[in-house]
Amino acid sequence: MGYSNALLLPGLWVIYHGRKAYPYHRDYDSLLFGTPRLLRFVTISGKEFLPSKGRFRPVRPEIIETHEILSHYQISLEQLIDVAILIGTDFNHGIKGIGPKTALRLIQEYGRIEQLPPDIKSRVSKNYEDVREIFYRPTTTEDYKVEDGTIDEDVLYEFLCKERDFFPARVKMIIERMKTK
Q1: Which 3 state secondary structure label does DSSP give 151?
Q2: What is the phi/psi pair of residue 16, to 5°?
């Protein structure tokens, strides 16, 4: 399935200037990597574009506490990973016809993928154990450093607009704002 930006996020719960940093991501993958909390929808505009509908929707910032999710649904992190595998992740296709509610119900009832009824288990990605390992033991490094510096506008623009399809006018506006701070 390919590269996931979420792989970069679990390490962001480091201490930064004496404060705990929150991973920020639009989807929930960071929870699967074990981050204790996730920050979503911190936007300048307060809205999110929905490409499939061709319109924007208003969004409010939210903090998701992993332990609260697990407690509410009475599942473990390992079971949440199995729910995600049934639905589909950046690393596997889910089972057609099984969405979040059904996947959650199945894992709550059967405990884990290995205990699913044969007709369902046979439709699970053959590499599901490898996918679990990605979430259980992601490849990490401590060989990095964060430095303050100037923005290389051309590189940032190339990355965001050309590689990630961000809207160019918005990127230019944000770069200008960053330069004034």
Answers
A1: coil
A2: -130, 115
Paired tokens of 153: 């506008």
CA distance 178 to 176: 5
Give the CA distances from residue 97 to residues 15, 73, 105, in Å, rounded to whole numbers and listed in that order.
42, 21, 14
Q: Can you name the residues that pair with 111 across neighbouring β-strands?
A: none
Q: Is the CB of residue 111 less than 8 Å from the CB of residue 79?
A: yes
Cα–Cα distance between 37 and 56 in angstroms, integer? 26
* CB 85 within 8 Å of CB 77: no
Q: Which of 60, 24, 58, 51 shows the shortest CA–CA distance to 39? A: 24
pTM (2 d.p.): 0.68
| Range scoring the smallest mean pLDDT among 83-92, 111-120, 170-179 | 170-179
